[in-house]
Amino acid sequence: MSSNNQEPDNLESVFKRKRILRTKVRQALKSMDPSLRSEEDDIIQSIVLEAPWFKSSKRLCAYISCRALREVDTTKLLSQILHNPSSALDGSNVPRTTKKLYVPRVEDKNSNMRMFNISRIDDLVANSMNILEPASVDADGNGREDVMHANDPVDLFILPGLAFDRSGRRLGRGGGYYDTFLTKYKELAKEKNWRRPLFVALSYSVQIMDEEVIPVTPNDVLVDALVSPTGVIPITSAALERMKL
Questions:
Q1: What is the rounded CA–CA span in Å between residue 87 and residue 172?
Q2: According to the annotation, is 214 in a ligand binding site?
Q3: 198 is in an annotated binding site
Q4: pLDDT in tens, 145-202
Q5: Where does substrate bind (predicted)?
Q6: What angle do CA 166, 173, 61 make, to 5 degrees?
Q7: Does the annotation list 235 as a binding residue?
Q8: pLDDT tens digit string along 209-231?
């Protein structure tokens, strides 16, 4: 990753390059054939659902896909977690463990985001931008569990993004919400001596860039692995080790 001593002029250059790349990737996503997008959505979700590292995860954070943002669909993933939470064995003898799901809620325009536990899709409501997210309290007025105050660590983060490369670089949408949150969670895991969760991003084929194309700043968090229509791309040593399961 880039040096922590980047000068302001260099940072502005990085931000400019990011803006240009975002425009390019958004256009590529807009031009993507709807039938191809649907096909890749199904393939990517099937890969995740059949992956031993997904089946064995007990606590997950996952984004709620937004069609308007042209994000890889997560509908089947969320449905599988919420509708089939009980333990069972499949043909691969990998236990389908009871899963706990946390999903994001944007708190303000200052890159602050929280992750709340939900137990059903009906726990989600549309915000002012028509993006589904959890209310901070349930239907009975009780506060939802915040992942930053949970007693147990998260095993897996399923992440969105605009562009990725095979070295783990991730280009977000410019708000800094995920980079800020993931940095805080990494600090919490270190403080509590928890094993750091895997950061796994879902990517359409057009979103995977050549290495070094995505500019980075010291605040950008790398992902451990990508899931694309061609399969899983483990990147870090943690991913290589845990994806052997």
A1: 35
A2: no
A3: no
A4: 999 999 999 999 999 999 999 999 999 999 999 999 999 999 999 999 999 999 999 9
A5: 64, 71
A6: 70
A7: no
A8: 998 899 999 999 999 999 999 99
Residue 178 known to bind ligand: yes
pTM, two decimals, is 0.90
pLDDT at 39 over 80: yes
Please indicate if the annotation marks 191 as binding a ligand.
Answer: no
Measured between alpha carbons, how far is 209 from 172 in angstroms, rounded to an integer?
13
- The reply, when asked if residue 91 is annotated as ligand binding, is no
Chain segment 65-116, per-residue pLDDT in tens: 999 999 999 999 999 999 864 444 455 555 556 899 999 999 988 999 999 9
Q: Is 176 assigned to a binding site? A: yes
**Residue with tokens 């194309």, as numbered in its chain:** 213
**71 annotated as a binding-site residue:** yes
**Was 170 annotated as part of a binding site?**
yes
Annotated binding residue 22: yes
Upper half-sphere CA count for residue 231 (Cβ side, 13 Å): 4
